[in-house]
Design brief:
Elements lengths: L8 E2 L26 E7 L4 H17 L3 E7 L2 H14 L5 E5 L5 H6 L7 H7 L1 H4 L2 H6 L1 E2 L2 E2 L2 E2 L2 E9 H6 L8 H13 L3 E3 L8 H14 L1 H10 L7 H16 L12 H9 L3 E7 L3 H7 L5 E4 L11 E6 L1 E5 L6 H11 L2 H9 L18 H11 L1 H4 L2 E4 L1 H4 L2 H16 L4 H15 L4
Parallel strand pairs: 2-3, 2-4, 9-10, 12-14
Antiparallel strand pairs: 1-12, 4-13, 5-6, 7-13, 8-10, 8-11, 8-12
């Protein structure tokens, strides 16, 4: 996975992510075939399988454009975040970067004037016609389109249907059912939910699921994009209470959940020690490799309050950006266009297991059953009237994300109430928002 924090600006109307028909993006132009050009590309494809896919796609580009060479460097997410600002500022960084979307990540680089607006290139290459409008929303900052979104994530609840049936249990669809499920699963020797919250960012996704459902997608969108409303409401308090207090007190999580690394939580689910896992589609590949003998379900987080609608969470994880320090912006745009061409998208989807928000016919692409489940959910969203909420952290300012990370750990530890956390989140949001 290219993002240990697979995070995320967010998508609604996700049926637009994958169209059934589309023509190719613009072809390579002869005007770029004259001078020798080196493009420095930084990405997060440290996983060996993803790295092979990226190398193949980059190689296809340089084969078609022999005057352009690509010097590629792959970074772990945290390593890239620690170095990217300084490197770009000093001129030692990349021409093209694959980086986390949203104000808290790419937005920091935009504030420092380190990312190039892509509006003109998007018009030239037709990107805005090929990319889902909601995905474009995820890489648009202050009304300007900056990044081409590659990763679309879907966040919900995985269930090991094989073990659940074997134990005579039923996958819960409401919060009350989930609490009862946890008690029954513990009696049978399982950790009910493979939640792990060290260093704390995984709590972002749990809150995104519950707040999306409690506020509803429309109200949440209005808050995230237009700063309308408040986080400190009865619905906001319930969103925190239901997951971080009620489920914790019901024994749904492993002991010392704040001390368990996210990867270890994944292992609990992969190994069959946990029956449920509330996380995102970025682990689909690992699930299919580790759990081939199990039937795996995927559904929205259980309904918290009567009258609520089951609500998925989705969004853009990372995107390709062009830096302002590049001397080869045209060639960089040409590369990005290639990365989103139909042959490239097929490789991203089938081999890297990414869900790319562009119009390409993927009906014949061979992928595993869990991968296909996610793809089908995204494709059928509008037709089936599915509700999609927002992954909050990618659209939130840094102080809000810091309060989520530290505050939810404090709530789990019993050092803070849901009411206090809701109030602190609202204050952190207001602190991080630009003055009007």
């Amino acid at each position: 996975m290219s993002r240990v924090r697979p995070w995320i600006a967010t998508l609604a109307g996700l049926t637009l992510l994958f169209g059934l028909t589309a023509g190719p993006l613009l072809q390579v132009s002869d005007t770029h075939a004259q001078e020798a050009v080196e493009l420095r590309v930084w990405d997060q494809f440290t996983d060996p399988e993803e790295s092979v896919v990226a190398d193949a796609i980059y190689a296809a580009f340089t084969e078609a454009n022999p005057n352009i060479t690509i010097t590629r460097e792959a970074f772990e997410t945290d390593q890239m975040r620690d170095t990217v600002n300084t490197a770009i500022s000093s001129g030692t960084g990349p021409d093209v970067i694959f980086y986390d979307a949203g104000p808290g990540y790419a937005g920091i680089l935009v504030e420092a004037e380190l990312l190039l607006p892509l509006t003109d290139y998007a018009a030239e290459y037709g990107w805005t016609e090929e990319v889902s409008p909601s995905a474009q929303e995820g890489t648009t900052i202050d009304g300007v389109f900056y990044g081409m979104p590659l990763q679309t994530d879907l966040i919900g609840m995985y269930s090991n249907e094989t073990l659940i049936a074997q134990e005579g249990l039923t996958t819960p669809t409401t919060l009350d059912e989930l609490i009862a499920f946890c008690g029954a699963a513990m009696e049978k020797g399982y950790f009910p939910i493979a939640f792990a919250n060290n260093p704390g960012w995984e709590g972002f996704h749990q809150y995104s699921m519950t707040i999306s459902q409690m506020m509803g997608p429309d109200a949440l969108r209005a808050k995230l994009l237009n700063n309308e409303g408040s986080w400190n409401t009865p619905e906001g308090i319930t969103a925190i209470q239901s997951f971080f207090v009620d489920l914790n007190e019901a024994g749904c999580f492993p002991p010392d959940v704040n001390a368990i690394p996210y990867e270890d939580g994944n292992t609990l689910f992969f190994s069959g020690q946990s029956l449920l896992h509330t996380t995102g589609s970025w682990i689909v590949g690992d699930i299919e490799e580790a759990m081939g003998d199990y039937e795996i379900g995927y559904q929205p987080f259980p309904v918290i309050a009567e009258g609520n609608e089951p609500t998925w969470v989705s969004g853009v994880g990372s995107a390709y950006y062009i830096t302002t320090k590049t001397e080869h912006a045209d060639e960089a745009a040409l590369l990005i266009d290639h990365l989103f061409s139909p042959p490239s998208v097929e490789k991203w989807v089938s081999e890297a297991r990414y869900f790319v928000p562009v119009k390409v016919d993927l009906s014949a692409v061979e992928i595993g059953p869990v991968n296909r489940t996610v793809l089908d959910i995204l494709q059928s969203a509008e037709a089936e009237g599915l509700a999609f909420g927002y992954n909050v952290d990618v659209l939130a300012p840094p102080p809000f994300n810091e309060m989520m990370q530290n505050g939810f750990q404090a709530v789990i530890a019993g050092d803070k109430t849901a009411e206090q956390q809701a109030a602190d989140l609202d204050a952190a949001w207001n602190e991080g928002m630009p003055a009007s």
